[in-house]
Structure formats: C-alpha cells, structure tokens
Amino acid sequence: MNAPVQVPAQTRLRLAHGCLDHLAREAGVRILHLKGVSLHPSLAEGRSPSTDCDVLVEPAQVGLYCQVLAAHDWQQITTFEHGSVFTHAATFHHQVWGTVDVHRTFPGLEHDPAVTFERLWDAHEQVDLGGIACAAPDLTAQRLLLLVHAARDAMGRARHDVRVSWTEVDADGRARIDALAMELGAVVPLALVTDRPELAVGQPDEHLWRAVHRRANPTEVWMARLRDARGPRRRARILVEAVRVNRDHLGLRLGRVPTRQEVRREWWARWGRFVRR
C-alpha cells in the first residue's frame, strides 16, 4: 500500500486559499484573502507561519458563501455570534484543506462593513494562491490590518507585525496608514498598537480595545464593553450577553456537544465570575 503524500503546511494553505477562491467565484461571491500566505512578501518575511486561512467576504453574500462551504464538506466549528467578543468570524474545517475563518467584518474597522469591503476591494491586488489569482488588500491596507490585529494578538506575532508595518515604514507610508485608519474607523486600535494612546481618548470602544490590547481576562473585557456602551438599552444587552454561555467554546473545550446540565453549570459559573468583579 502506498504511503500518503505529506504536503508541506504552507503549500496546503496556498492550495486551500485557491479552493476557497474557486468556490467563491463559482457562487458569484467576492472575497479578499487576509494575512497568512496571502501577505505581501515584505510583511511575511520572518513572520511565524500561519496554520489556517482567513477570508473577508462581501457582507451581503456571507450567508450564501457559508452555504457553499457547507455544501462542499466544510464543517462549521463556531458561529459568528459566539466566535469571539467581536462576533466577526465563523470557523469552518475541511478534512483535506484545514481551517478557515470566514470574516463578515474585521475587528477594529468600525465603519459600515459594506463600505469598508468596497474600499478594500477597489484597491485590491492579485496574489497567486494555489495557481489561482486571488484578491488581497493592497500593501497599505495589509499593513493596517496587521496593526489592528496586533492590537489584540495573542499568538506572539504582534512585535513582528508592528515592526514591518509601522516601525520600518517611512513617514509617507505611515501617513497613508493613518488616513486609511481614519477612513475605515480604525483609529483606536492603531493608536494603541503604535504607542500613541492619547489619540484613542474619547473614541468609541476605547476601553474595549485598551482591555484586549493589555490581554485582559474575559470578565474585564466584558466590563470594558459595558463601560463603552451608550444608553441603558445597550448596557442591558451587554449584561445579558456577558452571562450567556458560549456553546461553541464550551463544546470545543469539552470536545463534544455540551449537555443541558453542563450548559447550566457553565451559566452559573459565568454569573459568579461576573458578580465577583
């Protein structure tokens, strides 16, 4: 019997991006390939390798694209609502191609998602991934996305990303990043990650981004969201969300679908942690 062929991880990821793009084109959906193997060479050199794919989908077609993935044996692991505090992405897994985070928004870009996608799409560049010319943001946008992501990065790439996307960039390049951040509503995370915290004062979601930037624990992040909330209705909604059990994460932790008893036990534990704060 022939031994299975071992494909290098980065090669597999490039092929996976090509597959994801092919499925999108067949469905008439536009996607932008983010980070990882789609990065501009000047940003990728020396960066620790990615283990999954990331794509940003045009907002109006997110539901359709998720249906297409499911129809081609991509299993949904987490939902948008429970994937993270930013509710920005759903995770899918394929036995051959691995994992993809399907973004409907990009955390830190706070302006209208549809307008943001169009702005990034209008300036996109082509990158060969798995033999397919895939759309990726241009260099200025890639720098901004890396910086905004670095403001909440827990994977240890933040130092590299800030260096190649900001520290080593000339004044004109930084001005373009600042202008794009203003246009897309990314002033707060950019200010924090580039050591200009005074620019974040009084801005929307200031305390949330300060919390995630300093790697605060989940309860502190929820308290920061509560502090940023405007109006009693928004505060009440956040309080409800704070104690609601994230079934996706609980299931990943347990390695199976949680029982009602386990969900109930987790609810009481979350409520206790929140009250103690």
UniProtKB/TrEMBL annotation:
Keywords: Dioxygenase, Oxidoreductase. One of its GO terms (molecular function) is dioxygenase activity. InterPro entries: NTP_transf_5. It comes from the Bacteria. Pfam families: NTP_transf_5. This is 2-nitropropane dioxygenase.
